[in-house]
Amino acid sequence: MRGALKFLFALAVALVVMLAFRGLVMTVCTIEGDGLHPHFMAGDRVVINRWSYGLRTGEKGSLFDYGRIGRQEIKKGDFIAFDDSIGHLFICRCTALPGDTIKNMIVPGIVNCADQDYYCGELGMIPEERIIGRVCMVLFSHHPSEPFWKGYSKERFCLFQ
Question: Could you say which architecture CATH assigns to the domain 26-160?
């Protein structure tokens, strides 16, 4: 009985540590579709570093206001992961920073006209508070139409971005 309790306690601690790591440090998501080809392909499992631009805390209208712990600047060309207001995860390449001009339009930012910074990607303007982190590597790739025991690509294993 005592051994079973130790095992359950160790399992619970491991689960809490894993959830904390995924929530605070890094997370993994799957690329769906070939919109980011040749950098990413459908079925790629990518690692997102949540600390690359600073850990995102809170959001507007919640108990805690939006902020970043250890804030770092986003760079043009970075593949950024962001979520929409209902929690769907998206990945795109940052093509313009706040204050840059695109097609005779200035990307809004705190310095020039907005209450927060925006970044431009293939999917349009992305508010800074929605950015989760930077895609740092392709962990592995599994073709979406294959069963789980086959369809893995040896060429797309641990590719750093």
Answer: Ribbon (2.10)
